[in-house]
Design goal:
Length: 338
């Protein structure tokens, strides 16, 4: 089956607009039963028609350059009602952020701070929702080789040095669990429910060098996966959707080209700064060595002066001894003459 590559914003957004697919994606990652899900306000700033003569486009590109971003972070927010292991129902804010370049991580932190201000009415009482973040990355984390990881909180009693199993509503709303998906590290493994959900993101089996569409080679054995691949198939084969997908790819290339020169100049400046800092460190080292040599010379001079002073004192003492001997000899001579 031919499917569109969901790493592209227009495809990922189309996929996650389907409630069942959103439940499948989020519920599988969280390993939770999603009872209901509500799409919140989204940010989707991709421009289909990137006309460089358009003042709005120029403003958009200038803003991205000023922010030193190569491409937008795509954000999708959901309010999910999950069923806990105890049978209780709990509302949480699911925040999905997708980025192609590593520099986008700085925006993740800034945006996350804003999410703590979100409120949702639970039992007619305005209250902040616990946040769970999902990061879909189009680049690799060099330290982590797993395609999918969970960073979870743990309550630990520092006095007794033991894990606390009870949960605090106060703590739950101040901290959050995170999930990270590295699409470039997804393999053709197809065993668990998680494997099957991640398989649509696998960055292999492309039909051409554009890497817009690919062949999904796995056997579709669930209704959730069938619906997901069906949406991706339509996005990859429908002429209108395909054109939108190609427009996004061209937008990425255009912004990369426009920012490429700035990135090159920035790299050059950083290299110059690094070289100057290195030269400064070397100069400081030379100055330090000279100061050390000067201190050692001063020490040698002080030691020589001390030695000279001791010799002078010894000569004075010797002169006194000689004078005393002369006086004794003179006394003896006087006695002999008498």
């Amino acid at each position: 089956m031919i499917i569109a590559n969901p790493i592209y914003d227009v495809v990922f957004k189309r996929m996650m607009e389907n409630e069942r697919v959103a439940k499948f994606f989020i519920g599988t990652l969280l390993d939770q039963t999603i009872e209901s899900i509500e799409v919140k306000q989204q940010e989707f700033t991709f421009m289909k028609h990137l006309d460089l003569d358009d003042p709005k486009v120029q403003e958009f590109v200038a803003k991205k350059i000023n922010e030193r971003l190569l491409i937008n972070v795509m954000r999708l927010d959901f309010v999910a009602t999950i069923k806990t292991d105890t049978g209780e129902y709990k509302k949480i804010l699911i925040e999905i952020q997708k980025a192609k370049h590593q520099i986008d991580l700085m925006r993740f932190r800034n945006y996350l701070a804003e999410q703590y201000k979100r409120e949702d009415k639970i039992l007619e009482t305005a209250a902040p929702l616990p946040i769970t973040t999902i990061y879909v990355l189009g680049f690799n984390l060099s330290e982590i080789t797993s395609p999918c990881i969970k960073v979870e909180r743990q309550y630990k009693d520092l006095i007794e040095q033991k894990v606390i199993n009870e949960k605090s509503d106060f703590v739950e709303k101040l901290t959050h669990d995170s999930y990270v998906v590295q699409v470039n590290r997804i393999t053709n493994r197809f065993q668990t429910r998680l494997d099957k959900m991640l398989s649509v993101f696998e960055q292999n089996h492309f039909t051409d060098e554009k890497e817009i569409v690919k062949v999904f080679e796995h056997q579709i054995d669930s209704e959730d996966l069938k619906l997901t691949t069906s949406i991706l198939h339509h996005a990859g084969t429908d002429p209108k959707d395909r054109k939108e997908l190609e427009d996004e790819q061209e937008a990425w290339r255009t912004i990369d080209a426009l920012t490429g020169n700035i990135r090159h100049k920035t790299d050059q400046l950083l290299q110059i700064i690094s070289e100057k800092e290195q030269a400064l460190l070397e100069n400081e080292k030379i100055i330090s060595e000279k100061e050390q040599a000067l201190l050692e010379n001063e020490k040698i001079i002080t030691e020589k002066e001390q030695a000279l002073s001791e010799k002078e004192q010894a000569l004075k003492d010797k002169d006194k001894e000689n004078e005393a001997l002369k006086q004794q000899i003179a006394l003896l001579m006087n006695k002999k003459d008498k």
